[in-house]
């Protein structure tokens, strides 16, 4: 939810080390950003997109997969015991 996306302490307590925001921007989005998460050492990656059903997010699939793959390949940035979370940061939830 938007509430969780903006709760840095809760994300850190959950063991979240990286955020890939697929709804970055100012319109119909979750506008947090790299600076917002840097205070708690969470790495941030954003895709400028609107959080609406008609937005074609598939155009960002390969670049997002590249980001995830690069995180998992770096032992120093990957979680020590990786757990996979799917968090849907949406205003509609």
TrEMBL record:
The keyword Transmembrane does not apply. InterPro entries: Atypical_DUSP_subfamA, Prot-tyrosine_phosphatase-like. It is an enzyme of class 3 (hydrolase). The keyword Signal does not apply. One of its GO terms (cellular component) is cytoplasm. GO terms for molecular function: MAP kinase phosphatase activity; protein serine/threonine phosphatase activity; protein tyrosine phosphatase activity; protein tyrosine/serine/threonine phosphatase activity. Keywords: Hydrolase, Protein phosphatase. One of its GO terms (biological process) is negative regulation of MAPK cascade. It catalyses: O-phospho-L-threonyl-[protein] + H2O = L-threonyl-[protein] + phosphate; O-phospho-L-seryl-[protein] + H2O = L-seryl-[protein] + phosphate; O-phospho-L-tyrosyl-[protein] + H2O = L-tyrosyl-[protein] + phosphate. Its EC number is 3.1.3.16, 3.1.3.48. Belongs to the protein-tyrosine phosphatase family. Non-receptor class dual specificity subfamily. Dual specificity phosphatase able to dephosphorylate phosphotyrosine, phosphoserine and phosphothreonine residues, with a preference for phosphotyrosine as a substrate. This is Dual specificity protein phosphatase.
């Amino acid at each position: 939810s938007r509430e969780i996306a903006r709760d840095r302490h809760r994300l850190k307590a959950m063991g979240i080390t990286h955020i890939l925001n697929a709804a970055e921007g100012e319109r119909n989005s979750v506008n947090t950003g790299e600076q917002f998460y840097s205070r708690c050492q969470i790495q941030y990656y954003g895709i400028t997109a609107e959080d609406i059903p008609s937005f074609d997010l598939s155009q960002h699939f390969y670049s997002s997969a590249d980001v995830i793959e690069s995180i998992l390949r770096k032992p120093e940035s990957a979680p020590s015991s990786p757990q996979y979370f799917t968090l849907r940061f949406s205003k509609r939830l």
